[in-house]
Amino acid sequence: MSKPLKEISDDVYRRALEKCWAVKLDTQKTFPTLIDEWITVEKKKLGVPYSYLAYPLLTSISYCLGVSRVKLAESYQEPVILYSLVSGRSGTNKSSCVSLFRNIINKIETNERDDKQHIFDSGTIEGLMTTLHENNGSVLCAVDEFSTFLDAMDKNSNGNVERSRYLSLWSGSSWSKKTKHG
C-alpha cells in the first residue's frame, strides 16, 4: 500500500519531481523554433521547467482561437478546447507562469478595445456561465489555485453541487442553468 502524500519526505518528493522534470517534450516537433526559443528564455528567467510554460501556452492559444472547430470528418467536428494544469510544490513559481499568460492575454484584449472580461479567475458556476455567454463561449480560465477553483465550481450561489457541469465544460457541449428566485 502506498503512503499518503503528506507522509512522503521532501527528499522522496524532490526525486519524483526531478523525474517529472526530466521528461522532455520534443520541442522541435511541438513548437516552431521561434516559440521554442521564447519558452526557453522565459523558463530561464522564471526558473521553471519547460512544461510550466508550454502547456499554458497551448491553452492560451486555444483560447485565442475562440469558438473555432476542427473538422475531423465531413460530419464530425470538435471544439478547440485545451485544458492544462501546472502542478508543483509551493514556491516553484507556478503563479508567475499563470501571471505571464494572463498579462499577455490582457494586452491582446486591451488592443481589441472591448470591455468584456475574457479571463475568468474566480467565481461560481453562474459567474463562469455569464462570462461564457458574454464572450460568445470563449473564456480563458486562468486560476492560480486549482483547489479553490474546484471548490467554487462545486457549488452554485445556493450551495448546490455542480459536478455534472464538468462533463459539459470538458467537451464544450451546450448547457443551461435554471435558477429559482424567491
Notable features of this structure?
49% helix; two-stranded parallel ribbon; two-stranded antiparallel sheet; 182 residues; DUF3987 domain-containing protein
What would your notes on this structure say?
- The chain has eight helices and four strands; from the N terminus they run H-H-H-H-E-E-H-E-H-E-H-H.
- Strand 1 (69-73) and strand 2 form a beta hairpin.
- Helix 4 runs parallel beside helix 5.
- The strands form two sheets. Strands 1-2 form a two-stranded antiparallel sheet. A two-stranded parallel ribbon has the order 3-4.
- It is 49% helix and 7% strand.
- The chain is mostly helical and 182 residues long.
- The chain has one domain (19-170).
- This is DUF3987 domain-containing protein.
- It comes from Clytia hemisphaerica.
- Pfam families: DUF3987.
Model regions low in confidence, pLDDT < 50 over at least 5 residues: 1-5
Tally of separate domains: 1
SSE topology string: HHHHEEHEHEHH
Q: Which oligomeric form is depicted?
A: single chain
For the largest sheet, list the strands in their spatial order: 1-2
User: How many helix segments?
Assistant: 8
Measured as a percent range, the helix fraction is: 40-55%
Question: What's the β-strand tally?
Answer: 4
Radius of gyration: 19 Å
Average pLDDT rating: 72
Q: Sheet bearing the most strands, described?
A: 2 strands, antiparallel
Give the helix/strand class.
mainly alpha
Quick one: overall form? globular
